[in-house]
Amino acid sequence: MNARPTIPGYTYGGAAVPSAPISLDEFELLKKTVLFTDDDVKALQQSKAVVQGQVEAILDVWYGFVGSNPHLLQTFTRLSDAQPDMDYLGAVRKRFSQWILDTASGQYDQAWLDYQFEIGRRHHRTGKNATDHVAAVPHIPFRYIPALLYPVTATLRPFLAKQGHSQAEVGAMHQAWIKSVLLQVILWSHPYVKEGDY
Predict the structure, then answer these.
(1) Residue 179's domain is classified under what CATH number?
(2) Is the pTM of this model over 0.85?
(3) Residue 85 burial (10 A CB sphere; 0-12, 13-18, 19+)
(4) At what angle do helices 38-51 and 86-105 cross, to 10 degrees?
């Protein structure tokens, strides 16, 4: 997949993203560990046609959840006045919308793998705020990274069920999303783990 210059800061496939600290072979072992198979790739790709027309509605749910929880919204607050930075929220939302489509594409190649570690860095004090040149809270505590796996994936299921697929198909798409987001959370965790322990 090529870089997406129309979304500021979305450097998937771009030269600015460092190489992932694990190889594709190591990532294959991780996929095997969470039981992520070719069937999951097919289910994700099936889900793309379902979610691509609902991206904004999905983000409304996810942003509504974050916005209703001050401890999560704090991530987007300015240090100067402790108020949410709406431009920052908007910039992240654009990248979040592309993340939905990339996840559903199921094309987990080297460029995708590299970018997952970049996403992790942008949550951590080593890279947060730099992409959007903002002066917001400088670090997201690790505990909230895996915790958000559940609300993100649980709230997605109703959207997957909106186009008349069978319960079995919806279930397969949903399970594939859970596994994919889990894999990504594991990759995003890298900057939080002590060197040599990842």
Answers:
(1) 1.10.490.10
(2) yes
(3) buried
(4) 130
